[in-house]
Amino acid sequence: FVSNRKEGRGNEDIYSVSRETNEVIVRVLNATDNMPLEGAVIDFSDCQKGIYATDANGIFNFRADEELNCRLLIRKQGYTSASLQLSGISNKDNKNYEIILEREADR
Questions:
Q1: How many whole angstroms from its chain centre is CA 93?
Q2: Which of 7, 46, 48, 84 is geometrically suited to a Cys-Cys bond with 72, CB 3.0 to 4.6 A?
């Protein structure tokens, strides 16, 4: 933003404000061949944040703008479910998580 107040350093002083957030990446893979699982459900219900799905690369990423302390449920039809506890992720931490799901038929 720009300010032209009298107490500034010049005619128009330019200021910027940034909001620090962290990037959290959840990658979901097939246990048999380590291939990405597209469309795996990432359920943030415990966090009151909604339900999302992984992309074609098995990835779901988000920016956390507040400290997270909750459990994610990761599932895909035909596979066993998994959970991921997010604890103490601050707005300055980047986190990568790899979740391996087994086919129910392979169990």
A1: 11
A2: 84
- How many helices and strands in the chain, by DSSP H and E? 0, 9
31: left (phi over 0), alpha (psi -120 to 50) or beta: alpha
What are the two backbone dihedrals, phi and then psi, of residue 47, each rounded to the nearest 5 degrees? -95, 0
What span, in angstroms and rounded, lies between the C-alpha atoms of 26 and 47?
Answer: 15
Dist CA 62 CA 23 (whole Å): 6
3-class SS of residue 36: strand
User: Around 21, how many Cα atoms within 13 Å sit in the side-chain half-sphere?
Assistant: 12
Q: Which is more confidently placed, 66 or 56?
A: 56
**pTM of the predicted model, to two decimals?**
0.75
**Residue 80 near residue 97 (C-beta atoms within 8 A):** no
